[in-house]
Design a protein that fits this description.
Layout: E1 3-15, E2 18-31, E3 35-39, H1 46-54, E4 60-68, E5 71-72, H2 78-83, E6 86-89, E7 96-100, H3 101-113, H4 119-132, E8 143-144, H5 150-164, E9 168-172, H6 180-197, E10 200-204, E11 218-223, E12 226-231, H7 233-242
Parallel strand pairs: 3-10, 3-11, 6-9, 9-10
Antiparallel strand pairs: 1-2, 1-4, 4-5, 7-8, 11-12
Helix pairs in contact: 5-6
Bound molecules: adenosine-5'-diphosphate and magnesium ion (MG) (2 copies).
Protein name: Fe-S cluster assembly ATP-binding protein
Keywords: ATP-binding, Nucleotide-binding
GO molecular function, one term: ATP hydrolysis activity
Length: 252
């Protein structure tokens, strides 16, 4: 089984005011089949971690490593990262005009596996996954994310996750904008991927709400671009009660 290692990761962005350092030495190791929650106050660098793993060009790696089974992820193109087994759902999934959902999924699946999926199994798999996520059939033939509501985009993201069967997924604020019913459906999809495909998960969330449905094995608390605390699921319960105040040491 595989392992994703983040070692002493330091990341900055260029802004109009100059270079802004965001991640200040992040260490995180995720084994396949494990669920890690990354929590923390707004602006602590959670999304920056997701974007950096995804290879977003805006985020400059100043030091440290990201390794997938010892392979240097930072040297990989975005496509190579996907082929290596990383799934990187971003906070704002992109619309792809002119490309239907089915064609997109099939193309992505083919690129990742290195061969086209057998058509009969594939059609059945897509149908089953869409049924599980309570997605209307019409979504198959609609352009990717075009005119989808926030909740529909999230479901579509999980549809991709279930069909592409990555080794590791990074989900950033997947719960934002979802009502309870949609949150349940989306969480069940994530749990299915976890149980069926031994998915390793980096679940980024400000709120503990989604952790009622997706149970983390480990919880990491981000503060000012660093892991300030880590523990088991009980840490999430504590954060639910106490918030992040005790990590924000303000000098008086
Ligand atoms: P979180 O997801 O924990 O809320 P982010 O990673 O989005 O935090 O942001 C961390 C800090 O870095 C914030 O202060 C944010 O304003 C800043 N930041 C993130 N991305 C950019 C960017 N592209 N340009 C300028 N500042 C950024
Ligand atoms: Mg588990
Ligand atoms: Mg964020």
């Amino acid at each position: 089984s595989s392992v994703l290692e983040i070692k002493n990761l330091q990341v900055s962005v260029e802004t109009d005011q100059g270079t802004k350092q965001i991640l200040r030495g992040v260490d995180l190791t995720i084994k396949q089949g494990e669920i890690h929650a990354v929590m923390g106050p707004n602006g602590s660098g959670k999304s920056t971690l997701a974007y950096t793993i995804a290879g977003h060009p805006k985020y400059i790696v100043d030091g440290g490593e990201i390794l997938l089974d010892g392979e240097d992820v930072l040297e990989m193109s975005v496509d190579e990262r996907a082929r290596a087994g990383l799934f990187l759902a971003m906070q704002y999934p992109v619309e792809i005009p002119g490309v239907t959902n089915t064609n997109f999924l099939r193309t992505a699946k083919t690129a990742i596996d290195g061969e086209a999926p057998a058509i009969r199994h594939w059609v059945k798999d897509v149908r089953t996954a869409m049924d599980n996520l309570k997605m209307d059939k019409s979504f198959a033939e609609r352009n990717v994310n075009e005119g989808f509501s926030g909740g529909e985009k999230k479901r579509n993201e999980i549809l991709q996750l279930e069909l592409l069967k990555p080794k590791f997924a990074v989900l950033d604020e997947t719960d934002s904008g979802l009502d309870v019913d949609a949150l349940k459906i989306v969480s069940e999809g994530v749990n299915r991927a976890h149980e069926t495909n031994e998915l390793g998960l980096l679940l980024i969330t400000h709120y503990t709400r989604i952790l009622r449905y997706i149970k983390p094995d480990f919880v990491h608390v981000f503060v000012e671009g660093k892991v300030a605390d880590q523990g088991g699921p009980e840490l999430a319960d504590r954060l639910e009660e106490e918030g992040y105040d005790r990590y924000l040491t303000t000098a008086v």
